[in-house]
Amino acid sequence: MYYNRFADEELKLRLSAFGATLIIGSKWCGKTTTESRQAKSILDLQDLDRRLNHFETANTKPSLLLL
Question: pLDDT tens for residues 42-64?
Fold first, then answer.
């Protein structure tokens, strides 16, 4: 079950204004759950299988990461 947070509205405003945002906070506070409910795409740098590919893409053509 998901409980709406104050951050939900703030995130919605920032995503509509900037298109991307960085969420910082302590472990297990709901950052990933909150953003995944609103984001059109997610770039997970903790995915070790894809991490190196993400960094290589960022160095060659960063626009491909934010499709």
Answer: 888 888 888 889 899 989 998 88
Is residue 44, in this structure, part of any structural domain at all? yes
For residue 1, being part of any structural domain is answered with no
Kindly report the pTM of this predicted structure.
0.61
Residue type, 45: L
Concatenating the DSSP letter of every residue in 24-51 gives ---TTSSHHHHHHTT-S----TT-HHHH
Please tell me the total count of domains within the chain.
Answer: 1
- Tokens standing for residue 3: 């409980």
- What is the span of the domain harbouring residue 38? 6-66
Three-state DSSP state, 67: coil
